[in-house]
Design brief:
The chain is mostly helical. Helices cover 84% and strands 0% of the residues.
């Protein structure tokens, strides 16, 4: 009995520290959600526009233009080649210009969006290329314009695949947001570095990892559910 009580006493400081840090954990979780949701939204918007431009100007696209396609393709590949941590540091002056600071969750949204946009563009372009060419040709034979083909054929046909890729994008950005915490980006990554790494409070790092895993499961589950509905 005494041994059991001494064992519980050994874990009590950890539970006490968890309760003490709970407000910071909740704040960090909200900051991570804020970064991931907003950067996913902005990168989807910008990546979608790039994907439309590439699918239109593709040599087998709706209105082929090799020079435009090669230029956009080069920019997309170039931005995708940058490791995120290097891009994050390189964009500090631009981030400071856009949001007025280079520290915090709001500042992290800028490099997260720029890092994800070319990745999104490539994924959505792939989804468009998987659409049956026969459906596109059938729409063209009925006199559909390129705009009508994009919004009434390509997007509806590719939407289920795009939804699944949204999960990939959001989960990737979740990992990037944790990486942004190493340079003061806020969120769970910052919490894990500040307490788990710098102060050797491993339990706080474990809590951060558990929450990140739960967020991954939540994002994937929601996107899988939407995919089944759209199919």
């Amino acid at each position: 009995m005494i041994e059991n009580m001494s064992g519980l006493a050994a874990y009590y400081p950890l539970w006490e520290r968890f309760l003490e840090k709970l407000p910071e954990i909740i704040t960090a979780t909200w900051e991570t959600l804020d970064m991931v949701l907003l950067s996913t939204l902005f990168s989807l918007l910008s990546g979608f526009l790039l994907a439309i431009l590439m699918i239109v100007t593709n040599p087998i696209g709706l209105k082929p233009n090799r020079s435009v396609y090669q230029a956009v393709d080069f920019v997309v590949n170039l931005l995708r080649s940058f490791p995120f941590i290097i891009l994050l540091i390189a964009l500090i002056p631009f981030t400071r210009f856009v949001v007025g600071t280079s520290i915090g969750s709001a500042a992290a949204i800028v490099p997260l969006t720029i890092a994800a946009a070319p990745f999104v563009a490539r994924l959505i372009e792939t989804c468009f290329l998987e659409v049956d060419r026969g459906v596109i040709e059938a729409a063209r034979s009925f006199g559909a314009s390129n705009t009508q083909i994009i919004f009434r054929v390509l997007i509806p046909e590719a939407l289920p695949s795009i939804v699944l890729n949204v999960a990939v994008i959001a989960i990737t950005l979740l990992g990037y947001s944790a990486m942004a915490g190493t340079v003061g980006g806020g969120g769970l990554g910052d919490l894990a570095v500040k307490y788990g790494y710098n102060r050797f409070q491993v339990d706080i790092m474990v809590y951060s990892v558990i929450i990140l895993c739960l967020l991954v499961l939540l994002i994937q589950g929601v996107c899988n559910f939407l995919y089944k509905i759209l199919r």
